[in-house]
Design brief:
Structural class: alpha/beta
CATH class: Alpha Beta
Strand order of the largest sheet: 2-3-1-4-5
Strand content: 5-15%
Number of domains: 1
Oligomer: single chain
Bound molecules: BIS(adenosine)-5'-tetraphosphate
Shape: globular
Radius of gyration: 17 Å
Helix content: 55-70%
């Protein structure tokens, strides 16, 4: 199973991605965590990425695309993955699509975490107190929400046109949201295993733009 999670910062992608990975025995590939690891290790990529992350901007597409590919191949060989935070731009989505198509491993499902801005601001203020993340200051969070609206929200249409988008209500108890997601994924798994109804991304045509 190859699943993507899309949602604004603080929507709970990281929280739910870990649970999905545990429940379905999938690898979790979280680009935010991978980038923070690069920053902590002081790599060249980390040095470049830090500037963008601290401002609340997205790290340049080519760096993120390159960083993510090998992990996707490894994880796919081990049974699949949940992608948390990638793709985040149309350019990343197109690159991921062409790359996956060429290998016959298109994405199965995209979960879109729906949530109001007020709830996001409250959650991220909580995370700022607990985790001291340099990109969780109020000003940076507001900027990240704008970046999401301008650069990432268009992916909702993109994956809807591909027929693999499922909206998830991301407000409520964490366990209840996990249950909704697990039910969706179990249903999808059962459906794709029955003959003739497998409709992954690639059967919908070479491009959705
Ligand atoms: P991420 O690490 O992906 O940060 P995020 O979007 O804020 O995280 P998420 O939505 O996963 O929130 P979480 O579950 O932790 O990215 C950080 C930065 O990395 C980006 O701004 C960018 O610069 C860079 N980056 C990453 N990917 C990139 C890409 N593809 N291209 C370019 N740049 C990229 O939840 C937040 C909080 O809410 C937690 O404290 C949690 O406990 C709480 N919470 C979760 N669910 C809840 C619920 N149901 N109720 C109440 N609280 C809840």
């Amino acid at each position: 199973m190859r699943v993507l999670l899309i949602g604004p910062p603080g929507a709970g992608k990281g929280t739910q991605a870990s649970r999905i990975a545990d429940h379905f025995d999938l690898a979790r590939i979280a680009t935010g965590d991978l980038l923070r690891e690069q920053v902590a290790n002081g790599t060249e990529l980390g040095k470049v990425a830090k500037e963008y992350m601290d401002r609340g901007d997205l790290v340049p597409d080519d760096l993120v695309i390159e960083m993510t590919r090998d992990r996707m191949v490894e994880a796919n060989e081990e049974g699949g993955y949940v992608l948390d935070g990638y793709p985040r731009t149309l350019a990343q989505a197109e690159a991921a699509y062409r790359w996956a198509l060429a290998r016959g491993i298109p994405f199965d499902l995209t979960l879109y975490f729906e949530i109001e801005e007020q709830e996001l601001l409250a959650r991220l203020a909580g995370r700022a107190r607990e985790e001291h993340r340099s990109d969780d200051t109020e000003e940076t969070v507001r900027h990240r929400l704008e970046v999401f609206a301008n650069q990432t929200r268009p992916l909702v249409d993109y994956y809807q046109r591909r027929g693999i988008l499922v909206p998830i209500n991301a407000v409520g108890p964490i366990d209840a949201i996990s249950e909704e997601i697990f039910a969706t994924l179990h249903w999808h798994k059962a459906r794709t295993m029955s003959a003739g109804v497998n409709r992954p991304e690639w059967v919908l045509g070479p491009t959705a733009t």
